[in-house]
Amino acid sequence: MTGLLPDPGLPGILNGSTPPGVYHLPPTDAPSHVMALAAEADWRGAWLRLDGVHDKAAFLDRCARDLDFPDWFGHNWDALADCLTDLSWWREAGKSRGCLLLAEDWGTFRKSAPADARTAEAVLADAVDFWAHDESPLTVLLA
To answer: Nearest 5°: phi and psi at 20?
Structure first.
């Protein structure tokens, strides 16, 4: 379901030559640099920091906080899917070339809660598929 970020790496995502997807970010790519490049390329970025997240409840709480989910977010997998396939709450006025969600410390979360991480990854992949053919696609990078 998830693969390594293919060559040419982040530039391929940002210029559209690499299709939207859920990719593992190479450890040599610093999250702050990734977000800066996304902003320069007119991509809307969100940084999901998963340090200290070891279960579903904490993951969903962190999503709500870091991604600035709307008040109606129900703190369950279905509500996460709803937020990620709506994005009207996230998109700023005007259009961006794409939306980039960077999930930092994914490996720690995956090791702490493998079943929850698999479910979260499936929800993320479904959201990416939902937006794949939109003029402003969603890509998720797991770091």
So the answer is: -55, 150
